Amino acid sequence: MRGKIIQKIASMPIFFQHDIDQNTRLAVWKIEEDENFFLKHVPLQRDITHPHKRLQHLAGRYLLKYLFPDFPLSLIRIADTRKPFLEDEVYHFSISHCQDFAAVIVSPTKRVGVDVEMVSEKIGRIQHKFLSDDERRLLFTDESVMLKHATLAWSCKEAMFKWYGKGEVDFRKHMVITAFQSNNAHYEISAAFLKESGLLLDLQTKFFDGLCLSWMVTGE
After folding, report:
1. Same-domain pairing of 122 and 171
2. Do 103 and 10 belong together in one domain?
3. Gap between the Cα atoms of 163 and 111, Å rounded
4. How far apart are CA 7 and CA 12, in angstroms?
5. Partners of 218 in the beta sheet?
6. Cα-flanking dihedrals φ and ψ of residue 133, to 5°?
């Protein structure tokens, strides 16, 4: 894993930050503030009635400006697939929310995807819906890692789905994990994206206790 990593310290509000390369940046925010904190810095761009979903929305927008202060929030559009994007693609970006966490990845030159999840029994119960038998044999080397690796697989496929951005993807049929290796809490994953041209993709996953963060970067 290249680039600079900044873990949260007492004087910083960022839970995790990773400068993947010179132009591509990733960050996770643990939401501990109220709406007023975020509204001083970024606008609420959508009519969101649920208070916590508003906080998640605002935290994601705040992170975009944190990583790239010139990020044009007012130009964000939402595709029919619910993917946020900029029409002129001056930045490629991806946003994910889970409970009290918001994650963002941004690059001016590369396509990106990010996802953040909590390890949960729910994901374990539905793993047969998004994993093939071959993938389960690869990932579930013993029962003790089933929930963790099922969450890893779901998170990686969510990151791929957001990277693709065009919708109509079958998580089991079109996205296939072919290999993975771990170094403590960090995983490197290889996957085949079969929706169009059968691309081979590289993803990264990092665990923080019960939190799973996955991301990917492709192309120039």
Report:
1. yes
2. yes
3. 7
4. 9
5. 111
6. -60, -40
> Token pair for residue 19?
């400068």
177, two tokens: 């994990």
pLDDT in tens, 108-125: 999 999 999 999 999 999
Looking up residue 91, the CATH number of its domain turns out to be 3.90.470
Give the tens place of pLDDT for each residue, 60-99.
999 999 999 999 999 999 988 889 999 999 999 999 999 9
Longest dimension (CA), the chain: 49
Same domain, 121 and 162: yes
The answer to whether 84 touches 95, Cβ cutoff 8 Å, is yes
Place of tokens 């929305």: 57
pTM above 0.85, yes or no: yes
Report d(CA 158, CA 204) in Å as an integer.
13
Domain extent for 59: 4-110
Q: Which residue has the tokens 């970006």?
A: 93
